[in-house]
Write a structure and sequence with these properties.
Strand order of the largest sheet of chain A: 2-10-9-8-7-3-4
Shape of chain A: globular
Subunit structure (chains A, B): Homodimer.
Largest interface: A-B, 76 and 76 residues
Low-confidence stretches of chain A: none
CATH superfamily of the largest domain in chain A: Type I PLP-dependent aspartate aminotransferase-like (Major domain)
CATH class of the largest domain in chain A: Alpha Beta
Structural class of chain A: alpha/beta
Number of domains of chain A: 2
EC number (chains A, B): 2.6.1.1
Organism (chains A, B): Phyllostomus discolor
Oligomer: homodimer
Number of helices of chain A: 16
Helix content of chain A: 40-55%
Largest sheet of chain A: 7 strands, mixed
Family (chains A, B): Belongs to the class-I pyridoxal-phosphate-dependent aminotransferase family.
Main location (chains A, B): cytoplasm
Order of helices and strands of chain A: HEHHHEHEHEEEHEHEHHEEHHHHEHEEH
Distance between the termini of chain A: 73 Å
Strand content of chain A: 5-15%
Amino acid sequence: MSTLSVFLDVPLAQKMEGLLLKAFKQDDSPNKIFLAYKVCMNSEGQPWAAPVVHKARLQIAQDPSLNYEYVPVKGMKAFIQACLELLFGRHSRVIMENRVGGIHTVGDSGAFQLGAQFLKTWRQDSQIVYIISSQREQHGLIFQDLGFTVYEHCFWNSKEMCMDPDMFLNVVKQAPHGCVFVIGNMGNCKLTQCQWEKLMAAMKKKQIFPFFDIPSQGLFTGDVEEDTRFLQYFVSGGLEFFCSQSLSKNFGIYDEGVGLLVVVALNNQLLLCVLSQLVKLALALWLNPPTCGARIITSILCNSALQEAWKQSLKEIVEDIMLIKEKVKEKLRLLGTPGCWDHITNQSGTHCYLGLSLPQVEYMVKKKHIYIPKNSRINFTCINACNIDYITESINEAILFTKDSELSSEGK
Amino acid sequence: MSTLSVFLDVPLAQKMEGLLLKAFKQDDSPNKIFLAYKVCMNSEGQPWAAPVVHKARLQIAQDPSLNYEYVPVKGMKAFIQACLELLFGRHSRVIMENRVGGIHTVGDSGAFQLGAQFLKTWRQDSQIVYIISSQREQHGLIFQDLGFTVYEHCFWNSKEMCMDPDMFLNVVKQAPHGCVFVIGNMGNCKLTQCQWEKLMAAMKKKQIFPFFDIPSQGLFTGDVEEDTRFLQYFVSGGLEFFCSQSLSKNFGIYDEGVGLLVVVALNNQLLLCVLSQLVKLALALWLNPPTCGARIITSILCNSALQEAWKQSLKEIVEDIMLIKEKVKEKLRLLGTPGCWDHITNQSGTHCYLGLSLPQVEYMVKKKHIYIPKNSRINFTCINACNIDYITESINEAILFTKDSELSSEGK
């Protein structure tokens, strides 16, 4: 009897690593450079890690008093407490009022998977999600797979070369009642007091549910408090929200995938109900979250000397990032590259818009083997002393080339 | 303006920790004992850990050459290879033929969540799952939440006091075409060659899909190869299957929740299709599996001295378990407890049927504060020098009490 496979109808799934990375890997050019890694790189082109992590890891391995029994489904209490205090500040009102809580989540997707499953069940009348285009592939697909309708948007004003609060306000204005808004770091989108008030009023009126994405607190301005200050507007505006707080990038333990799904509710009673439902979902997803990364983070955050050392290392890496941006700008100035490049240094964080047009991006990729996303948002920590000259000269070439072709097409 | 919460309709979810543990925690008796923990305990009543884990953990923490960058979605290659060789044997045909693979999964639920999601999509014509009653709460709910119909069954023959292969065969006979069978360790269910052949023929004919649960390879007989030998029947019988391979309990790193979803297909091409779909699902579930536990396990399995030490520690703990069972039997003999207690030592593993009736279990729980599941399947490693006398005396009392009440009701 010949046997038929039960898997006969299962097709090969497309690799999801992104077309850009795939093209980069297939490129044989010795000059090829990839400027879209998620990871923060150090000046040697290696993934950055907070030096204090090594010390914490060793202390944990040498501690005979630790036991390695199952931890609660929602995670270790001390870990959750430390992370919430990091996010909102130790003496924040929302912590005092006992209306913020968290669930330990796994990997870069865990918090979004858990939160989306919750919203799927408990917000059945409004299964619409707004998400920033660059987050579409990573988080948008999670919502889409669960049956949400996902709309993309973008706040980058390519004419003014800045993040544009009005573009954000317009999307909110047009969004339907009760939809979910995935919101990344808002630091580069500078709202005036009046714009904040408008935003809060519009979101509250429409019962828009914010789902924040804090992938690397501290790696934006170098100051952990400053990086999440914008959350206070939402807290004091009386909004309820979820927040995916990742702690892998800002400690440099990318392989531990440590995170939290943070819940802010109007009062403690509501919070407990939401957390209890999330625990139920986490039970089915993984049951017990791996604790190694959580132990490292807790031991750093709960020891003031280690915490200070960690914060100092964040300051240093952010200064390095700013230095790279300054150098890129200076090199472009020396090359006489047309245009004003202040937008490079006006943006904070590892990932910023370079401000190239689509033909310029294509020139960089196809002619210079420098791999840049279509929206030209690159990871500046991928630029270092070894490749900065080639990169800036290529940017210059791309600008001049497209200027020339514009002129020649205008002349036709 | 008073604000309404978006969480207004969210009720408090029931705690899922199990009614038995809840009742135990609420019991104020100083004599209370819980005999249903999942964890393997050492003779001091502490969670067992393989001593070699400490060494591996320290080595990893001291290794300056390690980087902590993101690992692939499916997990570290060396880890998966080492785990598959542990499960099937290094020179097994299925590995040689390149038709077995695995995905690193998270926590005790991860492999079942991932596998169930796959089966939900790719076996749409048969969404029925058979599961052993004692696994209902842990794994059955995962299938149920995804829309599967879940049937419970049990192979414990309480008359013969043994696991009964005929009961298994009967359930298979009655099961519908194409259903999924979650199968735990079959070591205590001793099939004859003829019964194996019948089982394979019935499963193949009906295209029944086995989903094995290997929660603690090596903690059953003390011999890792012996513990999973039954898988060979399914491999050589030409069946395709999934297997949830957990590596937390047999290394004693319960808090790391390390596992694998193992896939056996008829050929490499089919395997690659299935793995590609699983990677897509894992991307949305957690994206990157935490690696600390996987590193510990890989460094032990890939170093023959450490591997030997680990295997030796498994042998020792299993000898301890057998010793406890012998002692329980001997104590019951000395107490003159009615009945033959050979079934205690005839079963291997940490969790075995004590063979009490429902009224006897109720007597143990209510009168003696010894918490035992209704089916009387207990964790023998929870019995130690401190509590063995109280436990065996209580068993004796429970037997005599119910014998008396049987007699008195017969006399009526």
